[in-house]
Amino acid sequence: MMVWKTLTRWYHQLGSPRYFYRFSEVLLPWLWPIALLTTAVGLVWGLAFAPEDYQQGNSYRIIFIHVPAAGGALLGYVAMGVAGLVNLVWRMKMAEVMIKAIAPFGAVLAAIALITGAIWGKPTWGTYWVWDARLTSMLIMLFLYLGVMALINAIPDPRQAGRAAGLLSVVGVINVVIVKYSVEWWQSLHQGSTIKLTGGSTMPPEMLTPLLISMLGIYLLFAVSVLWRARAELLWRERKSAWVKELV
Amino acid sequence: MNPLRKQRLLIIIGVLAGLGAAVGLVLYSLSQNINLFYTPQQIVSGEAPEGAQMRVGGLVVDGSVRRDEDGLGVLFDLTDGAGTFTVRYEGILPDLFREGQGIVANGTLVRRDYFEAEEVLAKHDELYMPPEVQQALEKAGHPGAKPEPAEGSGY
Q1: B83 and B93 housed in the same domain
Q2: Contacts of B72 (CB under 8 A, 6+ apart)
Q3: 3 state SS of B88
């Protein structure tokens, strides 16, 4: 019961623009150096110091960018879906702000995943692109991100825009499930997951460790960027309120 | 939770469940088309239409690669353990093409046991390891040195 009470209190506090602004102000100054450092350590370790692969040689190193970007795009979409649900049910302004903040960074990560995948695909598979389930569903995810951005920009009233974008975010979560399981449900050219949530990963620790660090780094960078963008959006939306006037 | 919000939540859950079911059914009914390739078992059992353009995927049988005396032509057998057939291809093979490795070929199924490929793609598995580890495994005769695909994961 105590846990539930704390959670609801947090939920209501973080739902208040003013509280969110103060909370992120405390969080960001130490979160962004950690995010930057983690990403740098993971990428340098992976790209320069991890051993090469017995079959692919050095070209496999693109995994240290590809997998974090793809994972970030998926996670970001789930977060956007949760914000969309909160917005549709509770009509919370903070949720609208979060959708608007997440969409562009998620789109960039999805694009990075697709581009790095194509660059890796040419030497490894022999083709840049093939319409298999994983690649196609990932492309759809990029379009869903762009669709959310377009909806927000096309509707002038921010509350209506937020509701439309929220609906697309919630519905699009179905696609996240499809991306995740596409390599298991269908025969695809894309290989299965290297990192498994249950059971052993199919990678030795000297490769897996930098990969996990890169993933954590990119996720943290994603979170930092979203927080920053949400703060800017908040200030603009609440520009007529007393607490913003006091700040600026 | 107040009744209005509860109603909205129920509507959204209903919409999601309905859409999820619809998407699931569509994907299920289209699974033949979403599968990128036919497996050797499907080819041998006659499930794949003869004479049609299609993709096939499988493991290149060890010791089955036969190159033409002149030219780029190559013949090899493709298997998934349940069926085997021969593929002919003319052109440059991808770097990762080797015996025991998974590939996907695009072309025409001439007979149930003979496939003319126009394009051969190497299918990489999810296994990564440093060369020293692989050599050590091979020396010790460990089965991990020759990566077998995990059950049900394709090639």
Answers
A1: yes
A2: B90, B91, B92
A3: strand
CA gap B51, B108 in Å, rounded: 6
Best to test chain A binding among B123, B124, B134 (most A CBs inside 10 Å): B124
B118 & B96 share domain:
yes
Cα gap A32→A35, rounded to integer Å: 5
CB contacts < 8 A, A to B, total 120
B36, B106, B142, best to mutate vs chain A, most A CBs in 10 Å: B36
Pair (B70, B114) in one structural domain: yes
Cα separation, B63 vs B134, in Å, equals: 21
Residue B85, classed as helix, strand or coil, is: strand
For residue B152, list chain A residues with Cβ-Cβ distance below 8 A: 184
| Residues A41, A213: Cα–Cα separation, whole Å | 7
Contact check, Cβ <8 Å, A187/B129: no
B119 in the same domain as B79: yes
Beta-carbon count within 10 A of B5 CB: 13
Q: How far out from the chain centre does Cα A209 lie?
A: 21
**Mean local confidence (pLDDT), A39-51:** 93
The count of domains in chain B is 3
Cβ B133–A60 below 8 Å, yes or no?
Answer: no
Q: Do A178 and B27 touch (CB under 8 A)?
A: yes
Domain region containing B28:
3-33
A60 shares contact with chain B (CB less than 8 Å): yes
Minimum-distance CB partner of A89 among B8, B23, B127: B8
Q: Cβ of B126 and A194 within 8 Å?
A: yes
Mean pLDDT for back-to-back runs of 10 residues, chain B (155 residues): 87 91 88 82 86 88 87 88 89 83 89 89 82 76 53 39
Residue A187 structure tokens: 């025969």
State yes or no: pLDDT of A173 exceeds 90: yes
Q: Enter the pTM of the model.
A: 0.86
Q: Are A15 and A170 in contact (CB under 8 A)?
A: no
> CA nearest B2 in A: which residue?
A90
Q: Is the dihedral of CA B12, A95, A112, A72 positive or negative?
A: negative
Predicted ipTM > 0.90: no
Residue pLDDT, tens place only, A177-234:
999 989 888 888 888 888 776 666 778 888 899 999 999 999 999 999 999 999 999 9
